[in-house]
UniProtKB/TrEMBL annotation:
It comes from the Eukaryota. Residues 401-470 form the BRCT domain. This is BRCT domain-containing protein. One of its GO terms (cellular component) is nucleus. It is found in: Nucleus. Gene3D superfamilies: BRCT domain.
Amino acid sequence: MGWELVQLEPRPRGEAATPPAPLQFGMPVYLTHSSKEYLTLIPTIDENPVEALARIEVGHWGVKLTALSHDVRVKPKFPKFLTAHDPTSEEYHLSVASDGRSESIFLREGDSVFLSKATTCVKLAWNPSQVQVDSSLPVPEIPESDQANLCEEETEDDDDGDLDRTPLAPKRSGSTPANSVPHSVVQETPTADRLSSTLGYRKVSAQNTSPSDEKPLQLPILSCPTDVAQNDTATGAFSTASSKPVKEDTGPEGIQETPPAAKETPLEPSADMVIDDVQDDDNEDSTPDSTAARELKSILQSTAVSASRRSTKQPQRSTKSPKVQIPAKSSAKKRKSEADDESDGSRKRKKRATLDIQGTPKGTRSSQGSVQADGDESGSYEGPKPRVAFSNSGITPTSAVMKFLKKQGGIPVESVKGESCNILCVRDGALRKSMKLLLCVAHGIPIVTDAWLVKSAQQSRLLPLDSFKPSVPDQEKEWNFLLDAIWGKPQNIFTNYSIYFTPSLKAIYKPFSDIEEVCKEAGARRVLSKAAKDVKDKETKEMIILSLGEDSVDEDSTALMQKGLVCYSKDFLTLSILRGQLDLNSEEFRIKAPVVEPPKKRGRPRKS
């Protein structure tokens, strides 16, 4: 539950409705103009903006509204009319801040806030929370995803998390924990005979055989075609004659291709097996052995198809899957045709079998590693250790890309003063003339969008900065500046000048030390603010005077202009830094001096 600001109609045509802006306890909200064409109100929570019209604060005492650079009108939810014949309703007026003093009022639920040059207004609303008991609600199923969102917050505090790891689908809690080892049946020789008889194979008598002569059932591996050719020389699948042991082949990850049959025999085949490598011969004799082999193959095919469908939705298990073997073909003609087929496509099928054996995490790491190895060295970040600050950014401190930045040796910082910062990250979209942005432009710090960190995390390396400059063509046209011309270049446009702020303008910037830092970073030798009567004539040399502007009443600027001094509006400071040039002769920001009427003469006019 909490307070929130709701923007009311009308709004510009084609512009989407602004969602309610929640108010946080102890964090001020500033109301500014979103553009020059349409005067709408937007809440700014990031930093103290340069063009602040009013400020809203929330505390244990309630919600307080303070007028800054414009007059503010407040209408209650249920206004009281003064009289039955007077249509004027109840309304409260707050004057613009001057001489370091400002007017404030405590708001109530449903109060509407209006400004003199705004086409819309904001309304204060209370949003109660809806409490629900978790036990009475069904637990929603979490959708499975093969890729993790890099900008999504994570609950883990481990900075060394592996970003290349493919996340597994979360499991719902249950009363009985799942087994860590898959179910399997350890079978002896008599049990194996019983299982083979169930599938249609002939029973082999184990009588008159010593334990040393008993051999486990060995069948060729389905996923590796080369094993079939090795077992073709056997006299039969159920022969008790001695034969050469099958050589165990290990894949690139060290997984054995042919586990002994005396080990665990699974009841259900793995989904990683490739069954298409075994071909049926229509001309083969319909013997009991061949009939049973076809039945076994059909069972394995149906099981593998169902398992492959499940594997498309879930990531692969990291556990090793045992292999299933089938009897080798006894026909010489069959063996010859299979050998020819295997020699033609053995390389292609072997590659597919290797991919099936490898796990998803290792495959992902190898693919990303190849991208990094193949990338050009000139396409990587070159410079000092990144010290990244964030202004109006969508990256949270606990996101995965922040962990990636720390793993690459980067440091997230809060301040941009001095040498503490060398990169500024902003949200993709329109720029806000915040203190951090102006400081970075004046200091020559490169400004990039959040996509720089996101793409760098995907490539597992820091990418060049100049490929991720903010694209703001509309603001470049409106503010008459070029971002490429000032990007990464210090702007010392106020060299040998002192900058004077009227007390009314100083009250807008809180804290004032931030705007002082901006001016000094842009080359100003001195920043001062005092009453106009205290300004000495020798101080006015090489001094730039900034005031609220013609739309607001500023007695100090009026007094200075009566002395013949030139005053500029507050936009002169910000846009001069963004444009990278100082034009004191331009009429764009110069405030016109008020026309002083001569005093009227006393007495009656003389008769002619």
